Amino acid sequence: MTAPSTPSVAAPPTASRRGLISALMLVAAVCVAVVALVVLLPAARSDPYTRSTLQLSGSGERGEQLFLINCAGCHGIAAQGLVGPNLHGVNSRKNNRQLIQQVVSGRTPPMPRFQPEPQAMADLLAYLHALT
Questions:
Q1: Residue of 44, 121, 108 whose CA lies nearest to 81
Q2: Residue 99: closest CA among 75, 73, 76
Q3: Which has the closest alpha carbon to 58: 101, 104, 102, 120?
Q4: pLDDT tens track for 3-43
């Protein structure tokens, strides 16, 4: 003979289940905070030079003149690359902040450091964006 089966009834939440839910909510909150920091912190930390440069509209013609005077010796008259790399399509490889930092820091040897006035840097960015 078999024992009669009892219908299963949902047990009330236990302390361990509530603890798990609390832990998951805490992990979700931490993830949201990390994402917010990753997105917002770089913009908040950008230096005044970069911020002022990015607020300006550049002239590709003036940027080309600056390029020919300051950059063509290493990057070539047509920006095709010599000692320095080919700059055609550089704006698809680096964003404007990265381009500015590359120019002003000379981060990649043998590139020297430059810090043109913000308007001149905006002009240079306009020229670099025109290179395809």
A1: 108
A2: 75
A3: 120
A4: 556 556 565 567 778 878 888 888 888 877 776 666 555 65
Supply 24's token pair: 């998951």
User: According to DSSP H, which parts of 1-132 are helical?
Assistant: 15-45, 48-54, 60-70, 72-75, 90-93, 96-105, 118-130
* pTM (two decimals): 0.66
Dihedral, CA of residue 34, residue 35, residue 40 and residue 46, to nearest 10: 80
Cα distances (Å, whole numbers) of residue 71 to 38, 68, 106, 118: 33, 6, 12, 17
- Kindly provide the residue ranges of all beta strands, DSSP E only, lying in 10-108, ordered along the sequence: none
Class of domain 48-130: mainly alpha
